[in-house]
Every structure is written in structure tokens, then in C-alpha cells.
Amino acid sequence: MDFGKTKSALIALILAFMLAVPAFAQGRDEVLPLPDIIAAVGERYFGEVVAAEVVAGNSPDLYYELRLITPAGNVLRIRVDAYTAAFIEVDGRGLVDAQKPVPDQQ
Length: 106
Description:
Elements: H1 3-20, H2 34-44, E1 48-56, E2 62-69, E3 75-81, E4 87-91, H3 95-98
Antiparallel strand pairs: 1-2, 2-3, 3-4
């Protein structure tokens, strides 16, 4: 896999979403930008986001669906609420191994 091309494509996607997403946010709180969502995913999982799209669903109304390649080469599908960055669903092979340790909360 050519990660140089993948990163270029991801940057293009980010720019496109940053321009397109506000049109979806009618009557709700502001939609979080894709870089914030990618950062939230990076706090929880090891790997590299290689694809992202905005999806209009029923509940929540709008969410991001991302594909993450784990260090082991597995693909995770991650759905994140576009308004709150709450994780809706994560699935894929190697999910447990890709999870980062939860920091101690004191």
C-alpha cells in the first residue's frame, strides 16, 4: 500500500469535508471538523485513518465513518457522532489489540 498517496487523498478528503460539512448542520450545534474527529480516534486506537466520510443517518442525524488501518494491518470501521465526537460503533478484526490503554483517572 502506498501511504504517500493515501495521505494525499486523506488531506484532500479533509479539505472537502471542512468545506462541505457546515451545509449539513442546519438547526443543530456546529459539526465538529474532521481533524478533531481523527484526533479523538487517535486518542483511543493505534493506527492510521485512511478513509473518512460524513453520513446522514437516523440517530444521530450526522456521523463520521472512518476506516483505520491498525499496526497489524487490520481495518477498523469507526462511527463517531459528528456533533459530540461520541463513539457510536467500532468494529473490525484486531479491535482489542488496536485499543490504546486507558490512562489512570485520579
